[in-house]
Structure formats: C-alpha cells, structure tokens
Specification:
Elements lengths: L5 E4 L15 H14 L3 E5 L5 H13 L3 E7 L2 H11 L5 E8 L2 H7 L9 H20 L5 E6 L6 H13 L4 E6 L6 H14 L7 E6 L6 H10 L4 E4 L13 H10 L15 H12 L20 H9 L19 E3 L5 H10 L6 H17 L3 E2 H14 L5 E9 L7 E8 L2 E8 L3 H13 L4 E9 L8 E9 L2 E9 L2 H39 L1
Parallel strand pairs: 1-2, 1-8, 2-3, 3-4, 4-5, 5-6, 6-7, 7-8
Antiparallel strand pairs: 9-10, 11-12, 12-13, 14-15, 15-16
Helix pairs in contact: 1-2, 1-10, 2-3, 5-6, 6-7, 7-8, 10-14, 13-14, 15-16
The chain binds 3-methyl-2-oxobutanoic acid and zinc ion.
C-alpha cells in the first residue's frame, strides 16, 4: 500500500457548518484558490442541493479551481443530480454520497415504516439506498465516494456489509466518519483494521477517515486510522466544523511531517502555505483561532519564560519541534506605508494568498491609503482585514454604513446618529443607549426598522499598537437562525456599527433567498399538480 495520504479538505462544506460561520461565494472561491496553493488533493466545495448559494459556490469553484472538487449529496437522486450539475464544469470531480448507518441514525431518521418494520428490514433498505445512490453517481463520474455516516457508532458487521455493497456498486473511496467524535484512537484504529479484514473487495477502494472532535480526539483518531490502513483523511483548516469541529488539517499534516522518524506516511501539502490559509479562513468565517492552538495559534511559537527564551536563543531546537517558517509563519513585517504604490500592494496581497483584479485593486488601494493615513504602519494582518472587508462588500450588501457620529461622556447620555445607504437612498436616525455601542445599535435598528436579539458580541485588536485595527464579531438571532457580522476599523464603535449592519445584511440575504426558494417550491408543486 502506498504511504501517501490524500488530503480531502472539507473546510468549505463541514467547516462552513460551524455555528455562526457562513461564507459568501466570493469568500469560498478565495479560500478554494488558497487551498489549491496549499496543494490539497480534494476540495469538498459544498452541498449543492442544500441552497442556491451552495450550488453557485460549487459551480464557480468547479469552473475556476484545478484540484479534484467534491460535492456532497444524500443518498437521493435529487441530491446526486444537483451535485453533478454543480460539478460538471470541473476538470476532475467527485460525487460524495452518504447515508446514516448506526442504529441510532437508522431508527431516528428512517423510523417510517416504508423503510421497513424491523431494524433488520430497515438495514436492508439502507444498503439498497446506498447501492442505488453509488450506482447513480457512477453514471456521472468514475470518482464516487460513499460515507457511512456515524460509522464510529455503527456495528462492525453491518458496517462491513454496507461498505462491501458500496464498493460493489462502484464507490472508489469509502469514508468511515466518526460523526459524533465518540471513539477512542485505538478503538477507531481497530475499526479500520477490522474493515480491512472483513470487507472482501476493500482493496478496490481507498479507505478514508473523517473524525469529529467532540472529545478532542479528532486528530488522534485520524492518525490511528492512517496507521491502520486509511489513505485519505478528511479535515478542515483550523479544525472548524459542526459542533466542536473536525480534525484539523494543519495538525495532521505537520504531525506526519515532524514525526517522520516513527511514521512513514506523508502528504503532498505545501506546508509553507498553512499560516496564510489559516488566517484567511479565520478572517472570512469570523471564527477566531485560539492563541494556544497547535501550529497556527498566535502563541504556537512564542516563548514566554526566561529559561525557554534563553534556550531558544542558544538553540531553537531546545523548545521548538518545527520552525515557524516551515508552516509559513514569518516575523510580522511593516509591509507598506502611505507612499507605497499599487504594485507593491498587489504583490504583497498575492504573497498572502489573495488574488485581486485591477478593478478590485483600485478599491482596496483607496482603503489602504485611508488606513495608512490613520496608521503609519500597515501590517500583514491589516491587509488581511482589508481583504475581509472587501469580501463583505462583494456580498451584494443591502445596507451600508455611510456615516456615524457618537457623543458620550461620564455625565452625558450616550447618543449615536447613523446614516445608512440602501441602494441610492440614505436613511438617517439617532438614538440614545446604555453606552456608545448600545446607542449605535439602537440608531441602526431605528433606521432600518428592525429589531433583533444580540446573541454575542466580541471585540479584539487584530494588529498591534495604539492605532491597531479593532475587530468586532457579533451574532444576532432571529427564531432558529443566527447571522454573523464582522466589522473592522481603527475605532471600535465604527467597527461595531459595521458588524451589526453586516449581520443585518446576512439576515436580509437569507430572507430574500428563502423567498426565492419558497416561490421555486410553490411553482414546482403547481407544476406537479398540473401534470
Ligand atoms: O460527519 C459526517 O459524518 C459527515 C458526513 C457527511 C461525511 O460530515
Ligand atoms: Zn462531518
């Protein structure tokens, strides 16, 4: 068996399912291009049937990115056809179909009697559905992946049966997800080893693992899977994903690299692009990387105590098992100042992983000059933030902050006035509040005639110094949906206003999309009634 491990990145699909993360098409495309630079083998670009935005993102990525592009589909014809339609322009694509296989999933999702009366009958139906789905996907592409959802909690005999059936129907990759992050490393490794013994045709497919991190064991379980015969790992940048997230790409890749003395498996990841990719994913999703996160956290290469500092100064290897440069962390540089030209800006952005057209460059350059006027020194992180803002702006924003004025003092009532641009119109409103931020939010709500529940509000400084850029990330909730907004500015009140307006833009976009989908479904049902 070859020792190369295929890296299947699912940041844009499972990662995007992280609470509060929602990426627009522009952001997904930028991340996909960066993943290509990172040299991942497969990019799971989304779940096309789930929404028009997901479909469009998979379609655009398929047309513009060269890695193998995968689209997720339940074991249903409508999903598989939608995946094919979104993927068909890709040079190489994969349809990834899945069905729940544990008793808990079967009884919970397929409780209806039409799937069978007993668990045994239902299992037969599930196997048949898996086989039909794989065969249907196979009619569109030779590259088909089958996932036995909740394999971690699936009885080994049934798991072996369904995996064998999927391979017989044409699956070329069989994925064994620990969907709930429930297993222990040795238990999960044994499961992979057992499958290799039990499934007769296992050598006709690549075994893949997909480990969630509910017990903090996602990476350990993935490595144990590899040790026992898996040759594809599904993972995400910064470990983002459903609930506690997925196994983190950077941790798996670097663990294999650093410990090549005891482990013979390798990937073809360009590790020097890891840090840029991590930063891009964090700024577009608004999910902050914890400072002590392995490989990409701000403290991953920081040495605090005197003894450690002394040791590192004498010989870095005393306390470092990898160099920062090997994962793309370079010393923060003052990149550019107010006299820097467009060319310098464009080439630094390119080094940081962003591609900009000449038209976009003009907009970013103007923002850069304005920022350089406020801050003398513009750092890499400032540029990343400008790019994040640019991504927000390309999200067909409905509302835009045009102007804000806030007064406050220890003895006066905080008052904010905002002017918001909606298309060609402007609305201005003022309001008071408990503090400057509260007054600002009240003024925005009054201007847009919307009131929403603020679920979380986080502010942090993203660059250093007194003129650092402040980043505000907020989440608002409406019924069962939450919407995230991110705003940056050298002033935190302005950043808060931008973040709030951005969250309201997300909400508006969602309402418009929902209306579109509802009317599409209404016309489908009218059509079927007419037929
Ligand atoms: O966690 C999981 O089981 C998944 C599957 C769809 C592969 O994400
Ligand atoms: Zn998952």
């Amino acid at each position: 068996m070859d020792n190369r491990v295929i890296i299947f990145d699912t940041t844009l699909r499972d990662g995007e399912q992280s609470p509060g993360a929602s990426l627009n098409v522009y952001e997904k495309l930028e991340i996909a291009r960066q993943l290509e630079k990172l040299n991942v083998d497969v990019i799971e670009a989304g779940f096309p049937v789930s929404s028009p935005t997901q479909f469009e993102a998979v379609q655009r990525i398929s047309a513009e990115v060269n890695a193998v592009i995968a689209g997720l589909a339940r074991a249903k014809e409508i999903d598989i056809k939608a995946a094919y339609d979104a993927l068909k322009e890709a040079k190489r694509f994969r349809i990834h179909t899945f069905i729940g296989t544990s008793d808990i999933h079967i009884l919970g999702k397929f409780g209806d009697e039409r799937y069978g009366k007993s668990l045994a009958d239902k299992r037969k139906t599930i196997v048949k559905m898996a086989q039909d789905a794989v065969a249907y996907a196979k009619s569109f592409t030779s590259d088909v992946e089958f996932s036995a959802e909740d394999a971690g909690r699936t009885d080994i005999e049934f798991l072996s049966e369904i995996i064998e059936a999927a391979i017989e129907s044409g699956a070329t990759t069989v994925n064994i997800p620990d969907t709930t992050g429930y297993t222990f490393p040795w238990e999960f490794g044994n499961k992979i080893a057992d499958l290799r013994k039990r499934v007769k045709n296992i050598d006709k497919a690549i075994i893949s693992v997909h480990c969630h991190d509910d017990l903090g064991l996602g990476v350990a379980n993935s490595l144990s899977g590899i040790e026992n015969g898996a040759r594809q790992v599904e993972c995400t940048i910064n470990g983002i994903g459903e609930r506690a997230g997925n196994a983190s790409l950077e941790e798996i890749v670097i663990a294999l690299k650093v410990r090549k003395d005891i482990c013979k498996y390798y990937t073809k990841i360009n590790t020097e692009e890891i840090y840029n990719t991590s930063k891009m994913v964090s700024s577009f999703t608004g999910i902050i990387v914890q400072p002590n996160k392995a490989i990409v956290g701000e403290n991953a290469f920081a040495h605090e105590s005197g003894i450690h500092q002394d040791g590192v100064l004498k010989n870095r290897q005393t306390y470092e098992i990898m160099t920062p440069e090997s994962v793309g962390v370079t010393k923060t540089k003052i990149v550019l100042g107010r006299h820097s030209g467009r060319h310098g800006l464009k080439s630094r952005l390119h080094e940081l992983g962003y591609r900009v057209s000449d038209k976009e460059l003009q907009v970013i350059y103007d923002q850069f000059v304005a920022l350089a006027d406020k801050k003398k020194e513009v750092f890499d992180d400032d540029l990343r933030i400008l790019m994040g803002d640019q991504a927000l702006a390309s999200n067909q924003e409905r509302y835009e902050l045009d102007y804000i004025h806030v007064t406050m003092g220890t003895t006066s009532i905080p008052t904010a006035t905002v002017r918001i641009k909606i298309g060609d119109d402007f609305i201005q409103e003022s309001a008071t509040g408990d503090g400057a931020v509260d007054a600002t939010f009240n003024a925005i709500e009054r201007a847009l005639d919307i009131s929403s529940k603020l679920e979380s509000y986080n502010v942090r400084s993203v660059t250093s110094g007194r003129q650092a850029m402040g980043e505000v990330i907020i989440r608002i909730r409406e019924h069962e949906h939450s919407f995230t907004g991110r705003g940056v500015s050298t002033d935190v009140i302005e950043a808060s206003a931008k973040a709030y307006i951005q969250a309201l833009n997300q909400r508006q976009l969602y309402l418009e999309m929902k209306e579109e989908e509802d009317s599409f479904n209404r016309s489908l049902s009218d059509l079927s009634q007419a037929v």
